[in-house]
Amino acid sequence: MAESGDELAQLRQQIDDIDQQIQVLINQRARCAQSVADAKLREFQARNGDSQSLDQVMFYRPEREAQVLSRVIERNTGPLDAKEMAHIFREIMSACLALEKPMQVAYLGPEGTFTQAAAIKQFGHAVIDQPQATIAMVFAKVESGDANYGVVPVENSTEGMVTHTLDNFIESPLKICGEVELPIHIHLLANKNSCASKITKICAHQQALAQCRAWLDSHWPNIEKVAVSSNGEAARLASQSDEVAAVAGDMAVDLYDLEKLAENIQDFSNNTTRFLIVGREEVSASGRDKTSIIVSTHNKPGALFNLLEPFHREGVMLTRIDTRPSRTDTWSYVFFIEFEGHQQDKKIKKILLELEEQSILLKPLGSYPCAVL
User: Fold this and answer.
1) Distance between CA 246 and CA 239 in Å, rounded?
2) 108 membership: H or E segment, kind and range
3) Are residues 6 and 145 in the same domain?
4) Phi, psi dihedral angles at 174 (to 5 degrees)
5) Which candidate in 17, 59, 115, 221 could, as Cys together with 100 as Cys, close a disulfide (CB 3.0–4.6 Å)?
6) pTM of the shown model
7) Alpha carbon 159 to its chain's center
8) Are 258 and 297 within 8 A, CB to CB?
9) Are residues 73 and 213 in the same domain?
């Protein structure tokens, strides 16, 4: 027993020593981050004059963070899972970036939504988040400069595209700066004074209701299903009434002090939602990028084929193509096309030039790093 106790004490001491080394290195990294911020500021002021606002200095570089996290995953040897290790580095990077300049990030709210969870996954917990009531308000916050970046849902693996997000891109000057993929685990929640026999109404965002429609119809067939503005709003309503249950995620449980009546009620286990990061600046190449464009062409036979043929010829992989009605011409449509590569790549430049020559409208929405985590 004594030998076992001595061994345990030695292991604990070893952990304490390692923790101390980790702490020293994290603070060393933070000081380097501060030096990077100072260097960026000096360079910016040398180009633009000392009177320019600090707000105009670009401290956050999406392509740089994607490269760092990719290298963390590539060199990981375990026993920690590579993506778990990358999540740890994400939070370290978030805290270091906050020393340079705390970022304001707008997202589709209220608090407790999956979009907030996506914002935290992308930027870490050190950002200052700004929940917005609508996708249009997220765009407006970033366009005005009140937020550095915005996070909006764009597609779900089972329910398809979020059309409100696509429509906002048509008129907005914002660029896509990144993407986040978030596995969606949906629960049926109620307040702690409620129980299954009291529930008369189940609330959620219409997308969430659709993602667990079969489960709800099977287990709660006679209960009214009500679509509300967000899952966060559904959780808020459930927290205030014993008769309301909410379909929402884990963040809502603690935020609104709710209990789970049922867990993981999504109809498909691989249910995933993709979110886009929108900002005001172009993003440099990371080495593993996507590009999104809006394009409109003449309504004639072969028009869509002519748009897609250059991608085939140049060997560029399309990852998404969708249509939305044009806001200017009746029965006319615009195409949202997403593909692998950066718009500064030689063959992508060639494709875009060819599309521009044959299209009524070509609007690049930005090139951005593929989701890492």
Assistant:
1) 9
2) strand 104-108
3) yes
4) -70, 155
5) 59
6) 0.89
7) 17
8) no
9) no
